[in-house]
Amino acid sequence: MADAPDLSTPDPTVRELLATRPQLSLDPTCGLMMEGVPLSAVADEIGTPTWGISASTLRIRARRLLTAMTGAGLSVSVHFAVKSNDHLAVLRILASEGLGADVVSGGELLRALEAGVPASKIVFSGVGKSDAELRLAIQKGVAQINVESAEELEIISALAVEAGRVVDVALRVNPDVDAETHAKITTGLADNKFGVPYDEALALYLRAAALPGVRPVGYAAHIGSQILKADPYRAAYARVAQLVRATREAGAVVSVVDCGGGLGIGYRDEGEGSPEAFAGAIRAELGDLDVRLAIEPGRWISGPSGVLLSTVILRKAVTGGAPFIVLDAAMNDLLRPSLYDAWHGVLPLSPHDAVQEPEKAHLVGPVCESGDCFARDRMLPPLQRGARVAFLDAGAYGSVMSSTYNARPLAAQVLVEGERWAVIRPRQTVEALWANETTPGWLNGDA
User: Fold this and answer.
1) Residue 262 assigned to a binding site
2) Mind listing the domains of the chain with CATH numbers?
3) What is the pLDDT of residues 148-163, one digit of tens each?
4) Is residue 6 within 8 Å of 343, Cβ to Cβ?
């Protein structure tokens, strides 16, 4: 499973982690740098935990993905998966690079619009859209709604008629293809909750063509996340191509294929998914269909752009065993290791720490859960109280999955570009945690 890496190989060294992350470097005086900014300076000024995002990395990776598509002779609209990182600054940067948005909630839709993404470049996906969310999408005029079930199709039809609109819809088909990724992030198997069963898709498409208020334009397929090889894509798209041809033979128009996303990154030493191979899979299976193509990347663009900065609270010795390094960041900040057994590289911010002989240690947070563990038996520099570290590749499914569990305020966020950096979300105050809470009058002794 791609999000539970093979740990039989030695942990990557500081040098090896830096070698595959060009946005990071180690200055002998200033320590770990993101672009031209010393991350210790950020931590000195605003404290930790703090998320850092590299604007240049977002731009570079968005451009590489676009270039891969055009290089394969494809005209593809790219819709960034907002669920991977929904900060307005991130969305605004990617919108300026020509990307649209793939959203899965009304909140994400409004965020994308607020960031300057036009409704005509927004695709609304998701297995459980509420009536209010669908009304919002219809009213705003999004590019298309990806329909996940026969029941949802009927609801959209009724709401569109109510609004006096005709809505473009694509059927999200479940191709029953194994994405070869973690079980919790696969979405294209028959027993997953997503999409219309493959064998039922043609009949439902023809049904959509007869319904008022909706205009079926094509098919969508998204088979999972953190996909590192092209083979699962080719298998899925081959099935979609068969469906497109069968639909046309049945007399219906198909003008769009939404290829989904899921391209993975290299967290440890597994390498990352190739945009060029992704484009090749699309071209090989769908290139001759004369359809408008779309993709929905998220992690591949945003993941490598982010770090989470943290400080060692204490070093807890264990007789005869590896020490526990207790950080001020926790599972409420970065949930992925607890949720998926995910591996994130860890680099010290100090240039002195970075060159020390590594030792085996357990890296944990202060939350009152045994699952609040970032790494066990990880080879790390001998981190002492007050040392600072950066969790790598935390720009996707990091801050967006944060919570305030244990009454821990949300961490600050900064954006780095060149030698500049700015706070893009101040650290939440403790008082803000209960600012919107009230107690009934009778609990206060009121009559």
Assistant:
1) yes
2) 14-54+305-432 (2.40.37.10), 55-302 (3.20.20.10)
3) 999 999 999 999 999 9
4) no
Helices (H), 315-409: 336-340, 351-354
Nearest one of 75, 82, 74 to 111, comparing CA atoms: 82
Burial of 128 (0-12, 13-18, 19+ CB in 10 A): exposed
Q: Which of 126, 77, 74, 76 is nearest to 105 (CA)?
A: 126
pLDDT in tens, 23-42: 999 999 999 999 999 999 99
- Has 405 been labeled as part of a binding site? no
Q: Is 298 annotated as a binding residue?
A: yes
Instruction: Return the pLDDT at 154.
Output: 97
CA distances from 89 to 58, 82, 85, 133, 143 (A): 11, 12, 10, 23, 22
C-alpha radius of gyration, the chain, whole number:
23
Catalytic residue among 30, 259, 368, 373: 368
Report the alpha-carbon angle 133-193-215, nearest 5. Answer: 50
Query: Is 259 one of the annotated active-site residues of the chain?
Result: no
β-pairing, 31-34 vs 24-27, is antiparallel
Strands 50-54 and 412-417: parallel
307 DSSP β-pair partners: 52
Beta bridge partners of 293: 76, 257
Structure pTM? 0.94
